[in-house]
Fold this sequence. Notes:
Order of helices and strands: HHHHHHHHHHHHHH
Pfam families: BPD_transp_1
CATH architecture of the largest domain: Orthogonal Bundle
GO biological process, one term: transmembrane transport
Membrane topology: Multi-pass membrane protein
Structural class: mainly alpha
Shape: flat
Main location: membrane
Helix content: over 70%
Organism: Paenibacillus riograndensis
Distance between the termini: 39 Å
Amino acid sequence: MGSIEERCDMRTKEITGKTVLWIFLLAFAFVTLIPVVITILGSFKTNSELTTGATFLPSKWHFSNYAEAWDQANFSTYTVNSLIVSLSTVAGTLLVASMAAYVVDRMDFIGKKVYVGMQSFTMFVAVGAVVLRPQFDLMVKLHLHSSLWGVILILISAHASIFFILLSFMRGIPRELDEAARIDGSSLGRTFWTIILPLLGPGLGVGALFTFRGAWNEYLLPLVFTMTKPELQTLTVGLANLKYGISAASQTHYMMAGACLSILPILIAYVFANKSFMQMTAGSLKG
C-alpha cells in the first residue's frame, strides 16, 4: 500500500507541476501576443476608433490603411534601405565574428585573454546612447556621416554577442580536422573557409537571425546619420514619420499598418533560421 500511495503522490505532483507549467506558458504567451493582436486589429481601424478605444474588433475593416501607409511612408525606398543595412550588417558581422572566434579558439597569441575580456566588456556598453557622439565624430572624419555605410560599420562593430555564440559552436568542432588539413598542406585560411566555416552552419544561422533583427529594428543610428539625406532613411525611421500627417493630426492607424508590414521580413528571417535556432537550443539542453 505504501508503494501505491507513493506512486499516487508522485503522479499527483507530476500533474500539478505540468498544470502550473502550462498555466505559466499560456499566461506568458498571452502577455506576449496580445500587443501584436491589438496592433494587427488596430491597423484595420480608423484613427477615431483607435483614439476612443470603444471596440476591440474594427467596426469596419479598412484594408486601405496598408495602401495609404505604403504610399505615405515611401515604403519601397525605405525597405530597400533597410535591406541594404540589414543584409550588409549580417554579412560583415558573420565574417568578422567567425574569423575572430576561429583565431581565439584555435590559436594562442599575446593578449588573447585581454581581447576576449574586451569583447565581454562591449556587451555591457549601450551602443547609441553612450557612444553615439564619438561614433559620429569618427564617421565624420571618414566622410561616412551622411551615408548608410557609417551605420553599417557601427552595427558590425557591435558583434560581441555573435562572437561568443560562434565561439561556443567552434569549440564543438574537433581540432583533429585542423590537424588533418594541416598535414595535407592546407593553409590556415583555406582550412577555415573550406572545412570549419561549413560546419558552423547552425551557429551562422542563429547569428544571422539575431544580427538581422537588431539591424532591421535599429532606429537611433539611421535617424542621426540620415538627417541630411531623407532618401536614405530606413523603414523604422520612415514609420516614425507616419505619426503625424500633413495637417499635424495623429495617424496611429497608419503607423500600426506600417508596423505590421515591417514585421514581415523578420518573420521570414525566423522561418529560414528556425532550424538553426532549434539546433542551438537542443545542443544547449543536451550539454
